[in-house]
């Protein structure tokens, strides 16, 4: 097949890990006879430096014209001052493309359990997907700033909640049939609406699913005490942001978790859940697996290429099974591989 992919490397380790993901997509194209046109564009701090705008018009139009978008990472201390922030480019892109459902699977690899701070017996059987609402809530509400006060308004509409809950419901139907909605309904009005709408959508449209509601503070605890009991978690934007960083510790590292951001159509934005990690940028220390696995999600969810996605996922599985490690998941005394060594190994396996 022919497909056009917008590639936005961004900042920090973004270009290093994103470059590996693009190399793997090239390997997939060669092995399976596809033609992927990769259009690189600026986003985040890199775009601010070049144009003053974290999401320049040319990047917008390239992404709108693409079948799928891949993003490395954005942000860094260099842009912490008063000017535009790199992160606002990513947020604007999610909004522009209507990507309201952020899918973040968490399935620790049994052989990488030593990398997790959580006891192996608690990690046994952990296999969950967090569906994070991505274009609403406090991230996108009205903001104000005075010298001595500031506000961030959290707003949700019924429609915004319905569509993301529906997406999570469909996902749970194809899995173990359990859905956990996370909110703060004991304090927040938006959460009370969230709970009401979620209950209606699931009981009316997905009656076979088991639905539970839990408060976000308890969810933070259960993620560590009984993570294997979660199947699909659906939650609002900021709770999902926080809980998925926490959940990444079950897998052992943020460097292992991919994500997909989807709207109503097939076009999606794919990115590792980790940030730009400026402290390790340029040192070939970063783990490219989250990025490469995001490429696999791109193939499956935007291009419908299941076999190709599995070829990537199986390669990463076997590399971890054989004990190869990057710096983030290496145990004491283990000599880690570099970003490109791991990328090359995965490319080799994908090529078969
Ligand atoms: C994420 C990131 C972003 C977010 C930042 C970079 C704006 O933390 O994708 O989880 O908060 O959504
Ligand atoms: Mg985050």
Protein structure class? alpha/beta
The total domain count is 2
Write out the strand line-up for the largest beta sheet, numbering strands in chain order.
2-1-3-12-11-4-5-10-8-9
- Report the top-level CATH class of the largest domain: Alpha Beta
**What is the tally of beta strands?**
12
Note down, in words, how this protein is organized.
A ten-stranded mixed beta sheet has the order 2-1-3-12-11-4-5-10-8-9, sandwiched between helices. A two-stranded antiparallel ribbon has the order 6-7. Helix content is 43%, strand content 18%. The chain has two domains: 188 residues, Isopropylmalate Dehydrogenase, CATH 3.40.718.10; 135 residues, Isopropylmalate Dehydrogenase, CATH 3.40.718. Helix 1 packs across helix 10, helix 6 crosses helix 7 and helix 10 runs antiparallel to helix 11. With 352 residues, it is of the alpha/beta class. The protein has twelve helices and twelve strands. The protein starts with a strand and ends with a helix. It binds 3-isopropylmalic acid and magnesium ion. Magnesium ion binds next to helix 9.
């Amino acid at each position: 097949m022919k497909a056009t992919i917008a590639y936005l490397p961004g900042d920090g380790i973004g270009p290093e890990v994103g470059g590996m993901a693009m190399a793997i997509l090239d390997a997939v194209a060669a092995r399976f006879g596809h033609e992927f046109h990769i259009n690189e564009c600026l986003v985040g701090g890199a775009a601010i430096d070049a144009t003053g705008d974290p999401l320049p018009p040319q990047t917008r139009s390239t992404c709108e014209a693409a079948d799928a978008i891949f993003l490395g990472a954005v942000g860094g201390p260099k842009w912490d001052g008063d000017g535009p922030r790199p992160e606002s480019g990513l947020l604007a892109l999610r909004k522009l493309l209507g990507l309201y459902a952020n899918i973040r699977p968490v399935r620790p690899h049994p052989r990488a359990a030593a990398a997790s701070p959580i006891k192996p017996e608690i990690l046994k059987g952990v296999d969950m997907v967090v569906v994070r609402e991505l274009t609403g809530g406090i991230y996108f509400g009205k903001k104000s700033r005075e010298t001595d006060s500031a506000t961030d308004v959290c707003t949700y509409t019924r429609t915004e909640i319905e569509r993301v809950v529906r997406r999570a419901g469909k996902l749970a139907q194809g899995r173990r049939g359990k859905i956990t909605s996370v909110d703060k309904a004991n304090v927040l009005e938006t959460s009370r609406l969230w709970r009401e709408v979620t209950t209606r959508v699931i009981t009316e449209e997905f009656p076979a699913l088991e639905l539970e509601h839990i408060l976000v503070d308890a969810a933070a605890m259960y993620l560590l005490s009984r993570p294997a009991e979660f199947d699909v978690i659906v939650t609002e934007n900021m709770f999902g942001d926080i809980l998925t960083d926490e959940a990444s510790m079950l897998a052992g590292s943020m460097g292992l978790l991919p994500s997909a951001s989807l709207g109503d159509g097939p076009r999606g934005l794919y990115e590792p859940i980790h940030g730009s990690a400026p402290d390790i940028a340029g040192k070939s220390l970063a783990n490219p697996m989250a990025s490469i696995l995001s490429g696999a999600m791109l193939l499956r969810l935007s291009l419908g290429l299941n076999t190709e996605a599995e070829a990537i996922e199986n390669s990463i599985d076997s590399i971890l099974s054989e004990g190869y490690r990057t710096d983030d998941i290496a145990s004491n005394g283990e000599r880690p591989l570099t970003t490109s060594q791991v990328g090359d190994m995965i490319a080799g396996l994908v090529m078969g």
